[in-house]
Each structure stands twice: as structure tokens, then as C-alpha cells.
Input
Amino acid sequence: MTVRMNLTKQEYCVLNDLNEGLSVKAVAKNLDLSLHTVNGHMKSIYFKLNVKSRGQAQHKFNQYKTVVANDEKADRAAELAIANDEKADRAAELVIANDEKADRAAELVIAKGEKADRAAELVIANDEKADRAAELVIANDEKADRAAELVIANDEKADRAAELVIANDEKADRAAELVIANVQKTDRAAELVIANVEKAAHAAELESALLGKNSANKKAYQTESKFLACLNALALVRDNETGNHILRTQHYVKSLALRLKETGHYKKELSDEMIKLLFKAAPLHDIGKVGIPDSILLKPGKLNDEEWQVMKTHAAIGRAILATAEIETHGGSGVVTIAMQIAGEHHEKWDGSGYPSGLKGEAIALPARIMALADFFDALMSKRVYKAAWGFEDVVSEIVSQRGAHFDPLVVDAFMMEKAGFLAIHAKFKDD
Output
């Protein structure tokens, strides 16, 4: 049954008061109207509602209020039904999401199991790689022993320093203090390294004479090998990173160089001999840190702007040290030259925004461009006192985002093809 109300506002108020049981006089008083006006409104109400009495008008008014109330309830019921449908849909979505999370959790468990198996395989590597790693970290042959003697003087403190260099992390800081006590001794340390090079060359000549091996090439090779061993030992002592950082970056560099050669990029520059020299030179990329004060190098926290400017000088210091070494060894077989490029330019950026010289693009030596990505990857993957280690996928994403900005695009492409190998190297030589 449809009830239509086309009353004015005052007519509606009059009818509402009458419906409440008020008399005509009470309605007039309640609405502040005259009796004449109220009677006029009542006639209009009767006409519009097509009724002849007050009772009929009140009856129709009650019907109207009932219909309106029912319409409002119907609308509310519809709203509740829609809301319930939405809740049901959301509940279904949550059930599906939980199923997906459960599946993902299962995948992660399986993946972690596979990674654990792979890590075990990498930790227990073949004998040749294990022997090579031992040679790089702790010189276990006669040449390494001789190099250690040349870098660290033959007294009780030097013996103690050698023990501390090949010690656990807690004793590493003490070793650094014994080898190079403070900033004032840094220059002296550099002088001793050069002096030891001269001694190493003389020792190599004496050994060759005793053994009857007078080949000039062999002498140069022996001199250079001993000299590199000296510099490597010094770099390990003064580096604020771990020895495993040097091992990891050395293998990252070799992996990138081999992949670039395999894909036909820089094929002329990356001969087999060049890759061998690059592998030998990589550990010296941070040799310039011998010139950084302990208060900055060993600071247990993030550097401020002034300290960071001092830290950045290690690239130029490293180049200068190795430039002197190149003169002393008469160029050698090229390892020192490559090491000089790596030490001096591995913080340059492809877009020219790096340091110390702001070199751009291929003006940066290829060995330094390769070293830049290897060093960056290991820095992000490793925990520091001022930051947590990044996740592997986050590191990959960051390197890709720097393609053509920080890094040589072709080196980034090689990294993407070798990223699984990078992860394996990181696991094999992980920090204790």
C-alpha cells in the first residue's frame, strides 16, 4: 500500500502534533500559531490526503511513518547484506593468502636445505683450492715465511705480531697495534716496506746464485713474488675488513673477468695471463689504508663527513705506494701496474661521480671497473658495526639499479650471469 505525503513543513508539524494526541489549541500553542492558521492547515491536510476527518488523517500519517521506517530497515538490511558479502570475500582472500604463505614457507624450508647442502659442499672444497686459499691467507711455504720475516722485524715483538696477524678476530686489533702503532709510524712502515723490497731482491739474487739459477726473468719473478707477499701481509694487518674479504673479492674479480672474456667483451684486454695477474693484484686494492689514522680506520661506528674525507684518500695513497713499488721492481711482470690501477681507481664511477679523480667511462682502467663491483657486492653482503648485512636479492637489485651509473654496464651484465657463483664464493669464504 503506497501512502503519499506532499505536505508543507508546517502541515507536517501540525499533523505530527495531532498524531501525538494534542488538541487543536495545544497544537497552536506548541507551534506558536493561531487557531485560525491551524484550522487552515488541517483543511489543506484533509484535501491533500483525501480524507474527511482528523482520525483518517492520523491513520494515513501512521501508515506513512510505518512505510518510511520499513524502507529504512530494508535499506539497512541491504547494506548489512553487502557488508557481509564483502566480509565473506575478504575471509576467502585471507584463506587463499594463508595457503600461499604456507606454500612459500615450505619452499623456503626446502631452499634453505638445498643452500645448506651447497654450503657444505663449498666448505669442503677440493684439495687444490684449499691449498691455494691457505697460501693466500697464511703463507705456508718457505717464500711466505721469508716474506713475513722481511715485513716484521726479527725480534720478539715481530714474532708476536706474526702470531697475532694469523689469530682470531679478538687478537686482530692487537696485531695492528704491534705492526703499526699509530699514525706517526705509518710513514715509517711504508719506508720499511720499500727497504724490505730491496732486501727481498737481494735475497732472491743470493738464492739464485746458490742454486745456479741466473735467469734474469726468474730473478724478477722471485723479487716480485716476495714483494707482493710483503704487501699482502701489510694489507692484511692494516685492513679494517677481515682477511676473508680479500679472498672473496679476489675470486669475485676472477669470476667477472672470465665471464667477460667468455661473452666476447674486452676479449683483447682479458687474456689468460692478464686474468692471472688480475687475480694476484686484487688483494692490494685497499693497500692505501696503511696511511689512514687508526682513529678513523678502526673507528667502531659510522664516519662523520670530515673523517670520511680522510678515509677517501686511501685510494690515492695506495696508488702512490704501488707506483713506488713499480719503480723498485722495474715493472715486473705487470702485477704491480695492475694493482696500482685497482688501488687508485676502484672507487671511480662509470658516470664520473666517483673519487679520487672523477674519471668517467672507459677512462677508468678495466681492472678497477671490475674491482669496483666486486668490492661493492662484498661490502653490502657483509655486516659492519654501523650496518647490518643486506640480503642477496636486495644487493643484486641495487647493483642492477647502478648499471651505467656506478658500474660499467658490461660488468653488471657479467655479474648477472655469475651471481650464483658470487653467492657460492661468499658462502665458501664467509666470515667466522
Observations:
- The chain has two domains: 9-88, 125-428.
